[in-house]
Amino acid sequence: QNAVTAGVEEVFGKAFSQVMILLLIAFIVNILLVRFSKFTKLRALFTTGHVQVQQSSTAYWLILFACPFLTNNTAILIVMALILGCYWAVGSNVTIKPTQELTDGAGFCLAHQQMFAIAFFSWIAEKMGKGKEGKKAKKIEDLELPGFMSIFNENMVCTSLLMLIFFGAILVILGKDYLVSAEFMSESESFVFYIIKVCMNFAVYLAILQLGVRTFVTELTASFQGIANKLLPGSIPGVDCAVSYGFGSPNAVPIGFLSGAVGQFLAIGILILAKSPVLVIAGFVPVFFDNATIAVYANNKGGLKAAIILPFISGLCQVFGSAFIAYWVGMASYGGYLGMWDWAVVWPAMTVVMKYLGYIGIAIVVVALLAIPQIQYRKEKEGYFLMTEDYEAYKQYKGKK
């Protein structure tokens, strides 16, 4: 967002205030697409506000870059809102099935930065989870570690130790002098105990997040029903990806984080060796939230192996995709890019299509997005809307089928 604020006026001669107008119109597009679900087959409303601001900022730059032939401000905003609104509606919609299966029908889906990643990696994980002779792969929660390794069965201990190894190494590299000068710690504090405190605090915050999620979801889905029944029948809210951490294996979160971090660091090393014109510095948010979320869903479908391998692949995609798109569109010159999975993989592909095919490219992107729920619906006509309206009835239908 800072990069867009700094560069959009200089590069395109536009004011950042238009980003907020884009957000409003795109949200209206999302509402309309869900309101006419009979035709669009879309059932999810993107309600994660802070993510909408980030995505509106990045989409504003990408579409301005890809579509210089749009010179009228009104036309620009309408085209942008149509593309972004379709992405919000379709992206959150593709997370409905894996989320309902993960949560046993909790009545929400995800509306975040890795929506297509969740759908894609859940599909791959399901393939990985089908072992020989019909045996399903072991999930993280099914593992019983021997001897002293059994301490890792406890989520708090596992998270604390992983954070101590990972962030402890980073803090040691930064050194006490830097942390004192940056006012993270005082001169009189013990450097060793500061590292331990920071890492343990993270484990505590994560435990609070996981424990509080179910209460939050219960309240949210109950209050959303009032809106859904009147204005958007059959719809469910799309929420922040952290909500998924209260379901499935708690240890999937740190495992996904660690695997994704290894993938990112490997990719960064390759960029350095290849003398890339852009060096991506791995941000904590994409490392943690993208890859931890992917691991939760991957473990549910494909077990431990999927929860390790797929976040690692995600980490590679995040760095290579972000380096490509940030350099190509010029955002790298202003210091930042939204490097999470959808914006490192899906949006670069959409930007390429629009850049080289013009108006036809815009039409292809919109039609391709709107075709996805139609394909989903045709694969499971009887259960498609039943999945969000009455999940218990949906499970009975699946059982009979």
Q: Outline, from the CA principal axes?
A: globular
Helical amount: over 70%
How many distinct helices?
A: 17
User: Strand fraction band?
Assistant: under 5%
| Largest beta sheet: strand ordering | 1-3-2
Any low-confidence stretches, pLDDT <50, length ≥5?
none
The SSE order reads HHHEHHHEHHHHEHHHHHHH
Number of extended strands: 3
Produce a short descriptive summary.
With 401 residues, the chain is mainly α. It has helices at 2-12, 17-35, 37-40, 49-66, 73-94, 96-103, 115-128, 155-174, 176-181, 191-230, 252-273, 284-329, 341-344, 346-379, 381-384, 386-389, 391-400; strands spanning 44-46, 109-110, 236-239.
Describe this structure in words.
The chain contains 17 helices and 3 strands. It has 401 residues and is mainly α. A 3-stranded parallel beta sheet has the order 1-3-2. Helix 2 packs across helix 4, helix 4 crosses helix 14 and helix 8 crosses helix 10. The longest helix is centred in the last third of the chain and has 46 residues. The radius of gyration is 22 Å and the shape is globular. The mean pLDDT is 87.
